[in-house]
# Entry
Amino acid sequence: MQIGMIGLGRMGANMARRLEKFGHHCVVYDPSESAVRSLTETGATAAASPVDMLSKLSAPRVVWIMIPAGAVDALLGTLQPALRASDIVIDGGNSHYVDDIRRAQQLAPLGVRYLDVGTSGGLWGLERGYCLMIGGDTQAVQQVEPVLAALSSDAKAGAGHFVKMIHNGIEYGLMAAYAEGFNILHKIGAGAGQTVIDAETAPTQQITHGYEFKLDQIAELWRHGSVVSSWLLDLLAGQLATNVGLDEFAGHVADSGEGRWTVQTAVDAGVPVPVLATALFARYTSRGEADFANRILSAMRLGFGGHQERASARA
# Structure
């Protein structure tokens, strides 16, 4: 099957490679000429622009978009004048499902079908394959079935990205749980034998002192037969095996938007998601968004009790 791929980043390029590997032909475009060139070396056809891509595809044309959510509308605005009835546009990025519904309605009068495909698999998708969560017109899904690993059970526009949104919200919670657990092991091991006695420090139970946990070995152990084994743990174990202190990371954790959309949706629906919300807010804290709030706390403690911040904390 012939398919156009716009966006050859971390996932888009590997998706195109995987499609070529399984006998499909890709016409590819990306603002990065080197990204396009790397795909043409494996058999793909290069396009000079999104509209040029359409001209190189046979009708009915299928275009798969793998770009940041905030850039999708501008790209559709470029493509729309050149799209024709029976063409199919697939957004495989991390768009908000509400935007998918609007875009499907926008393209429908032209006879253009729009599919939203929440895509999970990351850098390993080329080898392992991708988990595809699909929403949109059933006939369009069936038409592109040769390039899909799975079909969505819900054919409503936005369903695919809605399911992917919840998937990523759960992912935030899982990642936070691993992070907090390993942080306890790390802190106890790092603080072994260190006891501070002053008015600003709560006493630590001595039972936690003296352990020297080897986080890389614990992660590897948990991978085998443990209730908490998972692919996320496999990836973490690989990182710890290389650098157990994770010194190359600053710990400023980004969020692509789907975690916050999950929490916003839960609020609108009146569904409690304390774990997912806490995991999201922890990411904000990691980027310094709680710094002023922490200064407020220190100011109030100084005011009511004369508590001075420890010099090491201000350093």
Observations:
- The longest strand covers residues 113-120.
- Confidence is low (pLDDT under 50) at residues 150-155.
- Residues 136 and 156 are 5 Å apart (CA to CA).
